[in-house]
Amino acid sequence: MKNLFITGGSGLLGSKFEYLAGDRYDITVTHHKNPVPNSISFNITDEKDVLEKISALNPDLVVHSAAMTNVDYCEDHPDEAWKLNVTGTENIARACEKTGSKLIYVSTDFVFDGERGMYREEDETSPLGHYALTKLKGEEVIQKYDVNYAVARVSVLYGWHHRMNFVTWVIDELKNGRNINIVTDQYNSPTLADNAAEAILKLFELDKTGIYHTAGGERVNRFDFAVNIADVFELDPNLINSIESTNFVQKAKRPKDSSLDINKIERDTGMKMMGTVEGLEYMKKIME
Ligand SMILES: NC(=O)c1ccc[n+]([C@@H]2O[C@H](COP(=O)([O-])OP(=O)(O)OC[C@H]3O[C@@H](n4cnc5c(N)ncnc54)[C@H](OP(=O)(O)O)[C@@H]3O)[C@@H](O)[C@H]2O)c1
């Protein structure tokens, strides 16, 4: 059985691999501060820890999903964000070079400035904030090593997880009858974490290399996405107020439209990236 090592196994995306593919792969998932069943403790900023654990397991694939993902926190703590998202990623790449493991690095739609939308893999990057910059530098740093790598860019991840994400937060707020303000002028390609994990596994199985947009199959703004959530989960859409981002102060600048073109992943793997309603319906189905 092939052996997979998932950094950030306690995070939203990293938590999906065991459930999706635990029957066909030997999967090791890691945590940093929040253990989950069968996870091992791992700190990507500790070069020695990274090298020892990856060398001991000698995995066929390392999915590097661990990161500092709080965009506003990264803006306020640039050195900490760099240490995790760039130096930590370099530690992983160096270890993969030693073991000969394939490396799939999970990146973000925020590498683009969002002036245009529906970005393709070869489009010019231009990160707006520090989180985005560190994720882009992570993409670049792995290329310095002699590693068989792919980059999987995702966008607004959602799915069931013990920590809240946009979808589970909207469900919770609406269920409790609370009004929420959601922006109409930020577009992304919301990505069901389960679907992105499947795409990453396909990239491994087909030994694809280079950059892939493993995101949702639909460009949507946050407000419409929230209304979709209300519709699918039969909650009250009237509780959702539309606002513009100029009325909503956030520390880090966000791209206006960082939606991703997913033709390449669909063409090269034959798989389908789910649209928004399809992804939400999948969530509803597995909840029942
Ligand atoms: N969430 C999104 O909307 C989004 C959008 C675009 C791209 N991405 C990218 O997708 C990937 C997965 O995101 P996610 O939302 O699933 O992440 P997440 O739920 O925020 O989880 C982050 C993971 O990183 C781990 N981690 C933090 N510090 C660490 C350290 N020093 N050493 C080792 N592990 C550490 C955390 O472990 P503990 O919890 O155990 O401390 C957790 O497992 C990330 O690379 C992110 O940049 C996410």
TrEMBL record:
Top-level lineage group: Archaea
GO function terms (MF aspect): oxidoreductase activity
Record-linked InterPro entries: dTDP_dehydrorham_reduct, NAD(P)-bd_dom_sf, RmlD-like-bd
Pfam families to which the protein is assigned, alphabetical: RmlD_sub_bind
Chain ranges of the RmlD-like substrate binding domain: 3-276
Record-listed E.C. numbers: 1.1.1.-
Matching Gene3D superfamilies: NAD(P)-binding Rossmann-like Domain, UDP-galactose 4-epimerase, domain 1
Keywords from the named record: Oxidoreductase
Name of the protein described by the UniProt record: Putative low-salt glycan biosynthesis reductase Agl14
Species per Swiss-Prot/TrEMBL record: Methanobacterium congolense
